[in-house]
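Sanity check. The docking grid for acetoacetyl-coenzyme A depends on where the pocket ends up, so I'm generating a full predicted complex first rather than guessing from homology. Inputs follow.
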Amino acid sequence: MDFKLNSEQQMILEMVRQFVKKEVKPVAARMDREGTFPRGLVEKMSELGLMGAFMPPEHGGSGMDMISYVLVMEEISSAWAALSVIMTVNNSLVCEPIQRFGNEAQKRKYLSPLSKGDLLGCYALTEPGAGSDAGSLKTTAVKKGGLYLINGTKVFITSGKEADLAIVYALTAPEKGKKGISAFLVEKKFPGFKVGKLEDKLGLRSSDTAELLFENCEVPEENLLGVENDGFKIALATLDGGRIGIASQALGIARGCLDEAVVYSKTRQQFQQPLSSFQAIQWILADIKVGIDAARLMIFKAARNREKGLPMTLEAAMAKWFASEMANRAAYQALQVFGGYGYTKETNIERFYRDARITTLYEGTSEIQKVVIARELLR
Ligand code: CAA
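Predicted complex below; grid placement will be based on this.
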């Protein structure tokens, strides 16, 4: 197997490195403290073609391969995970299902502007009573004339406040349970759609996480995504791709931690020597490095399967579980290298430590990834 990046992948990586260095790193800590949504940076990511990174050019995308996409996710996340989550949700959880399950009219109307960054998307599956058990959702969609009327509440929706379009999962045949769920393309401006409470979170402070309220929300019937009652399969298939994005995000956070810890360990002196001369510190750095490289290999494997249209449920779940647990360990260990300084907002480590925590929770907890892995193994 050839691990060398091709010239296009190297070019994309270099472009994103420049963007991260010039535009993201200088503002990340301040914007995190202020908790402001990085609208300007999202616009810059759109200009660079990152909001529809692997969508086909005929639908407004950049046509990148999946390896390029995960490299971009890693790079942005190594500086600021709140920015990369906006990108991955738009790419993997919104553009991808429209590309896979949408009809031509839906692709023209929604996929092209989403890919170009003219619209921002969010993915509305989770409900107050339906987290890990996503199939137990209660939101309903009742057909009336040429409309579906959606009623219910979604919670923890990444980009929920800022997004223009939500993919909403709702019961069209409640008696069938999870086999009666459908997916809908719901514009924020449709009557009956309201943004509710915003979450005050530990990390990802600049990415909004919102409650979405639907009260007789009027959705034209042509906005049904895919086939009626196939929605739960669409949701789970979408999450397979999404988990590759979150795994790459976790990898990037771990890389950010290692980069900072290496520099600090070489400059900080204790006992008349740099920290890096102590084996206790070297072992920490070695642990993080091995975890990072192992996670990257798993992510590349899942991305390659996705690229080739091969099964990837198992690979995506393994990559997501491993990378997110590894990133939390890496953040803990890097903070240990920084000592008390790492516990303050003077360093980026404190932010990485908080941001890493979500990666074992969203797009399926670590426990759910293990359920998926075991199911694939045993069936
Ligand atoms: N792709 C396509 N279809 C799939 C699938 C996949 N990966 N996995 C399962 N299916 C199919 C099954 O074959 C089944 O179809 P049949 O009935 O025809 O056989 C159907 O989907 C239902 O599957 P299960 O019965 O296995 O479903 P389940 O209720 O047992 O749930 C689960 C499985 C893995 C636990 C799932 O509920 C799950 O992944 N839960 C976690 C939810 C989650 O990740 N939420 C994330 C929220 S979004 C988010 O976090 C975004 C953000 O903020 C960034």
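Relevant for the grid: The CA atoms of residues 325 and 360 lie 6 Å apart.
Also worth noting: The chain has a mean pLDDT of 98.
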